[in-house]
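Fold it.
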Amino acid sequence: MKPDAGKSNRSLTFKLLLFALGSFGFGFALVPLYNVLCAVTGQGDQKGLVQAATYDEKPDLSRSVLVEFLTDVPGKGDWQFKALTRSIEVHPGQLYSAQFLAHNLMGHETTAQAVPDISPSKAVAYFHKTECFCFSPQHFGVNEQRVMPVRFFVDPALPRTIDRITLTYTFYDASTLIKPRN
């Protein structure tokens, strides 16, 4: 073995360790970097989707927008979750309400969380919820079913090129992540 081989091995080990630490640090920095990117560009920012908006009624009766409601449940047979209203023709600036039905079919108490998504993504900044079951986790008893409202309005500043908005909720079992309050 050459005398320089030990020095070369230590140098390579140091470089590999430095690379591994850098990769690990970069992985932790991805979420804050993504949040900064979303804040700067206004695209993909989910924070606005789970906060109540303030409402100041100034409807634009000269135009209408079709708002469609879709639902999804990642598992099979654990939940029944559906929109009781499939779509609503709305006037921007006017307050509307839609109803969703959730039914716990898991055979035990559980907590669920609805995660919203709005498309097209350009409409996210113009779709505002004043009340929504997605704002907080929902606790369900065994076989409990519940009708849950969403109250919303579309901002009159919505670009005229957008005439259809789709609000999709994915309903997750969050009982392993969220402890119900006693």
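Helices lie at 3-41.
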